[in-house]
Design a protein that fits this description.
The protein has about 350 residues and is mainly alpha-helical. The chain is built from 13 helices and two strands; from the N terminus they run ααααααββααααααα. A two-stranded antiparallel ribbon has the order 1-2. β1 (about 145-150) and β2 (about 155-160) form a beta hairpin.
Length: about 350
């Protein structure tokens, strides 16, 4: 005969008893923050290297900081910086004007204009800048006189090439023609970035072609042109140092003349470096605000500028300091209120 047991069959848990934990339940998992040990080690190594470099700048006598202080704002160096800025400004304006013409020649439907523009860009991007500068500096050896007249016919007026193209003129011509080849590709890339439908809509409204380019294409293309153009202008600013081969008194040439006379090579090179850093920083700030202006149509709520962020930070600090020194008014109990 089968025996009976006193145990109850398995059933639901008694009321009020805690339920057993469910495996992989998010509420029971222990949250451990990620520990980026490699990142901390890399940051510490960088800090140590920066500290070593800063310590070397401050303690190494080879830098000769007293010589740097004597020459960084001297009249000769300041005049040389002005010559550098002039060369950069002339080559930038003339180079981008010519480059814009070349860009639209390449975009033209005329095979002659396309071929001429492509050949120009190919040649002037292939020849180093220093070779072009030396060539224009010695133009009088190739053409002793320049004149106006009928092509392949008589010349009505001529002048000595050395009298019309001096040293500065040769440098400006060389820098402009070299810069125009790169500016043409920058402008062409910006124009190609504009949607073709913009031109189709403008043509449907009967807007003339020149006004389409001036009022529709170029304002939109500037957003794509400006970053690369700013980088190219900064490169041109530093590239003006190549004109030292023409004995023009720009920054690098004057630094060479001074340290060739007094033998203080390191501090004079540091003077040139400091000026190039300052000028490049100013150009970068100008590029930032110009890009911000042309981005207004695409970004209706642009982020605050660094100056506005600094003002907001100072305002926050002042508010926190005022609240810290404000006397605390005790709160009266409800029974004391009359």
């Amino acid at each position: 005969m089968a025996s009976t047991t006193d145990t109850a069959p398995p059933g639901p848990a008694a009321a009020g008893a805690p339920a057993p934990p469910v495996p992989d339940d998010p509420a029971t998992l222990k949250v451990v923050p990620a520990r980026h040990y490699a990142r901390w080690v890399a940051a510490a190594a960088v800090v140590v290297l920066v500290a070593q470099f800063t310590h070397g700048l401050a303690t190494n006598p080879v830098w000769e900081w007293h010589v740097f202080r004597d020459y960084v704002l001297s009249e000769t160096i300041v005049r040389a910086v002005w010559v550098t800025l002039q060369l950069t400004a002339y080559a930038t304006v003339l180079g981008f004007l010519l480059g814009t013409v070349l860009a639209f020649m390449r975009l033209s439907r005329s095979p002659v204009l396309q071929t001429v523009a492509w050949t120009y860009i190919w040649i002037f991007r292939s020849i180093p800048m220093i070779v072009q500068l030396v060539f224009w500096f010695n133009l009088s050896a190739l053409y002793d006189r320049l004149g106006l007249g009928i092509p392949f016919g008589p010349v009505f007026w001529s002048v000595d090439s050395n009298s019309i193209i001096g040293t500065i003129g040769a440098a400006v011509i060389g820098l402009t023609l070299h810069q125009a080849a790169y500016a043409a590709e920058i402008v062409r890339g910006g124009v190609l970035a504009v949607d073709e439908g913009q031109l189709e809509a403008a043509a449907a409204l009967g807007i003339p072609r020149l006004r389409q380019i001036r009022r529709i294409v170029l304002p939109q293309a500037m957003r794509a042109i400006l970053p690369t153009a700013g980088n190219e202008i900064i490169g041109l600013l530093k590239g003006t140092s190549v004109v030292y081969v023409m004995s023009i008194g720009e920054l690098f040439y004057q630094v060479q003349v001074i340290y060739g006379r007094n033998g203080r090579v390191i501090p004079l090179l540091l003077v040139a470096t400091a000026w190039y850093v300052v000028l490049t920083s100013l150009l970068s700030v100008a590029q930032y605000y110009v890009e911000r202006r042309y981005a207004r149509g695409a970004d209706r709520t642009p982020p605050p500028t660094p100056l506005r962020r600094a003002r907001r930070f100072v305002r926050t600090l002042r508010t926190a300091a005022a609240q810290r020194h404000r006397p605390v008014v005790p709160i009266k109990p409800l029974g004391d209120i009359r």
